[in-house]
Design brief:
Strand order of the largest sheet: 1-2-4-3-5
Helix content: 25-40%
Strand content: 25-35%
Structural class: alpha+beta
Protein name: Adapter protein MecA 2
Number of strands: 10
Organism: Paenibacillus solanacearum
Pfam family, one: MecA
Shape: globular
Length: 200
């Protein structure tokens, strides 16, 4: 479980499928109201307070983004407390620490980060024979970020692609919108083929 502060009132938590499996949670369980998911959320909020000083009391908006191979990105935004209630209502709010508004979304994007350009090139050479086309490469926060579309991949190919990506890089929870806004586009399309052609 990795987390980062996006702003004073917003954090992003990245959960791998291993994080979920260790807690006996299947990815489909994240869509359901079950005690294990509540325990996981409490654990995430405790860790966010310890690591980032993020106080999760009051109303929270939680966005869960399911990524095909990497796991889940959970974005938690803290709202403002409304103190215009009577004393009785305020006591109820203290008991119910988290007032949640949860939205779920899925993406077909596979996003991997590479710290070293040499690792990125080695990965491209291994991956190239498997891919017909596709992929965008960005530079973001001193890392190379490769984005691939999993929508057209069969399950077996997807597993092979993820295995190769995992060998050379690490799963990233950054979205395409963030990369386009704050990152730099290095190769807009067919990134793996272009890397192999230019650096063979």
């Amino acid at each position: 479980m990795k987390m980062e502060r996006l702003s004073q009132d917003k954090i992003r938590i990245f959960l791998t499928f291993d994080d979920l499996t260790e807690r006996g949670i299947h990815k489909d369980d994240m869509w359901r109201e079950i005690p294990k998911v509540h325990e996981l959320f409490s654990e995430m909020m405790d860790q966010a307070y310890t690591e980032l000083g993020f106080d999760a009391s009051g109303p929270l908006a939680v966005e869960v983004l399911n990524m095909p191979a990497q796991g889940m990105a959970v974005i938690v935004t803290r709202g403002k407390m409304n103190f215009s209630h009577s004393d009785d209502t305020l006591d109820d709010e203290v008991d119910e620490v988290y007032e949640l508004e949860v939205t779920m979304d899925e993406t077909d994007q596979i996003t991997y980060a590479f710290h070293d350009f040499e690792d990125l090139l080695r990965m491209a050479k291994v991956l190239n024979p498997l891919l017909i086309d596709g992929g965008s490469l960005y530079s973001y926060k001193d890392k190379w970020i490769l984005l691939l579309d999993a929508e057209l991949m069969e399950e077996k190919l997807l597993q092979s692609v993820v295995a190769i990506l995992s060998e050379f890089g690490e799963a990233a929870s950054v979205t395409e919108a963030v990369l386009q806004e704050y990152g730099k586009t290095v190769i807009e399309s067919d990134a793996v083929k272009v890397l192999c052609a230019k650096f063979s």
